[in-house]
Amino acid sequence: MIQIYNTLTRQKEAFKPIEEGKVRMYVCGPTVYNYIHIGNARSTVSFDTIRRYFEYRGYDVNFVSNFTDVDDKIIRVANETGMTAEEVSKKYIEAFFEDTNALNVKKATLNPTVMNTMDDIIAFVADLIDKGMAYESEGDVYFITEKFEGYGKLSDQRIEDLQMGASNRTASEDDAKKRNPLDFALWKNAKPNEISWNSPWGKGRPGWHIECSVMATKHLGDTIDIHGGGQDLAFPHHENEIAQSESKTGKKFANYWMHNAFVTMGEEKMSKSLGNFVLVHDLIQQLDPQVLRFFLASAHYRRPLKFSEAALQEAAVNLEKVQTTFKNARYRLETAVDALPEDAERLAKFAAIEADFQKEMDDDFNAANGMTVLYQWLKEWNVYLEQEVVSKAVLEALLEKAAVLFGIFGIVEKQEALLDDDIQALIEERLEARKAKNFARSDEIRDLLKEQGIVLEDTPQGTRWRREA
């Protein structure tokens, strides 16, 4: 049974889904005002790996991850560049998909955005006011923290201590509108040159925390199985999500809270505010994206991960070992016999190692220990490949299983580059498909060649091809 470390209870708990065999999972996505850095990518990769492991264990995962496309930072970039907030968001949403696709991150079941959820957000805020849990003040709307019993339970803080801390800090202009310094904004009155929407409280835009509450409950229900994100989101973002959501629905918001640790540069966490970040967009121009994926996915999600050239080099070496085993297995497959008497015994040995892998991963998705078991699995596979005679049945089974197990970590077998004759044969097949109006096959061949770095150019004289530089 899968055990999850629940931030809310600060202990590991057996995972019991709301609906048998299904997982409702919400993970806070990026604020889209720039390219993602390695720290952002860690959260994305960690929860992609967790999602993939759930699927490997037979669960149907409804995975929702949002884009925050309304935010102070987006407005600032829009004003600095002359773009609209929508244009800034669209640019960096596309960049997010480009970068995460390179890291072999599966697309979420749904990626809602704030702009497309505005009516629901306004209705949610109005409901909190009607329930006496929020109030309007000069066009802003604030949540009444002291009325929510248990505020601070996720971050393990007493509301009295939080109130004291809030009252002792330097007051801001917005604090004058609040009844209590700890109250937080659900809706913000529009400022000059800001994108805004009409609401019962005047033109404005939502506060950050309310957005995720609305998108999570709208698409996954009042109570969800798992809510995830970076550890820096636990307070105040996730704390406030709990307060808003449970005040509105009267139900428990999420049964399990999961938070991934930071990527560090030296001894500090990687962040844009500290200026010590490396953009994924830049890094994958310099190294194989699979190396970066391997680096991010091979560590336990709750352990800090130190970023360095040496760490990337180690990931590259380990990844090469995996790919070499795939390559050697393909080579031996060409001369393998169909089957051998000891095949069942051999496969049972690999199945036992896979059981050890499950045991480690079931323990709060311990990727580091799980990967150690997979290295043992590879070692046994390499010993088998050194035998004088090998079985095609065993090799095909191991290749299929390796694709599944390493696929949990987003690692795929590297295909050999197409030879010129193979390319020409595919081009001719594509030409015949187009003549037969089989455009689906024609597009499939073009995409296949593109994945191999082959660019096709259709000219009056025929189709030409070239390899991308």
TrEMBL record:
Short sequence motif named 'HIGH' region, residue ranges: 30-40
Domain Cysteinyl-tRNA synthetase class Ia DALR: 356-419
Cofactor notes: Binds 1 zinc ion per subunit.
Domain of life assignment: Bacteria
InterPro entries: Cys-tRNA-ligase, Cys-tRNA-synt_Ia_DALR, Cys-tRNA/MSH_ligase, CysS_C, Rossmann-like_a/b/a_fold, tRNA-synt_1_cat_dom, tRNAsynth_Ia_anticodon-bd
Binding site for ATP: 272
Residues binding Zn(2+): 28, 212, 237, 241
Residues spanning the signal sequence: none
SMART domains, per database record: DALR_2
Keywords from the UniProt entry: Aminoacyl-tRNA synthetase, ATP-binding, Cytoplasm, Ligase, Metal-binding, Nucleotide-binding, Protein biosynthesis, Zinc
Record note on quaternary structure: Monomer.
This protein's name: Cysteine--tRNA ligase
Lineage of producing organism: Bacteria, Bacillati, Bacillota, Bacilli, Lactobacillales
Gene symbol of the encoding locus: cysS
